[in-house]
Amino acid sequence: MKIDLLPMKYARLTKEQFDELHKEFINFLATQTITAKEWDDIKVNKPEVAEQELDVFSDLVWEGVLSKVEFIEHISPQQIHLFQLNEENMHLIVIKIKNPIDLTSTDGFNWLRENLMDEDVEFSQAKKDYTDDKNSDKFKLIQQGGVITKGDLFSYLDKLIN
Prior knowledge:
Blueprint: H1 15-20, H2 22-31, H3 36-45, H4 47-68, E1 71-75, E2 79-85, E3 89-97, H5 106-114, E4 121-129, H6 134-143, E5 147-149, H7 152-161
Antiparallel strand pairs: 1-2, 1-5, 2-3, 3-4
Helix pairs in contact: 3-4, 4-6
């Protein structure tokens, strides 16, 4: 019997993430009427089916998380990209530093806080519409190093520059 494997939409959760979501995974298996004993059997005798169950569960978790995300930050040594993920588009605030300060360091970030209006600090903003798959767009930002946040930095800077 050949099973067609569906391609994953996002990425498989890490072992640590699965450990955190152990109860939810058990409930997920239960919705498919898979008992603990059957799951142990599947892992041993049908590893490809077990892999697919892990992938499907991972995608479900990501879908739930991504549908609730409102802010993503991406901080690199010379730039900060702050995304507010609205219903219809992404609002982006970009901060660029023209001198060799590393914003990923505590010292660099503190320098920025104290020197926001310095001539070496440049602000810009943009709005970008989503593609047909909003959650996929959000996931790409995370894959590129973005981190889900509560949006405090975005909100602060949005008030400051607008």
